């Protein structure tokens, strides 16, 4: 199950980067760690949605790992 989360997260990170590059050409993956440095990203609803999906996947993975370790 952990590999499923890893695959989903990897896919979503790529999707988020592609979305960001449509809005801010030339942006790189490291720039996504501080999207508030780019006003066009900060205020873009599609980017924020994709970012939220990634955060949800990361949270779900963390919860799964926590439960798996306690079992």
- State the helical fraction: over 70%
Radius of gyration: 14 Å
Structural class: mainly alpha
Strand content: under 5%
Spell the H/E element sequence.
HHH
Number of DSSP strand runs = 0
Question: Distance N terminus to C terminus?
Answer: 14 Å
Outline, from the CA principal axes? elongated
Number of helices: 3
Poorly predicted regions are: none
Domain module tally:
1
- pLDDT averaged over residues: 96
Largest sheet entry: none
Helices and strands in order, then pairings?
Elements: H1 2-23, H2 39-42, H3 45-70
Describe this structure in words.
With 71 residues, the protein is mainly alpha-helical. The chain has one domain (2-70). Helix content is 73%, strand content 0%. It has helices at residues 2-23, 39-42, 45-70. α1 packs antiparallel against α3. It is elongated.
Feature tags:
0% strand, 71 residues, elongated, single chain, mainly alpha
Brief characterization of the structure:
The chain has helices spanning 2-23, 39-42, 45-70. The chain is mostly helical and 71 residues long. The chain has one domain (2-70).
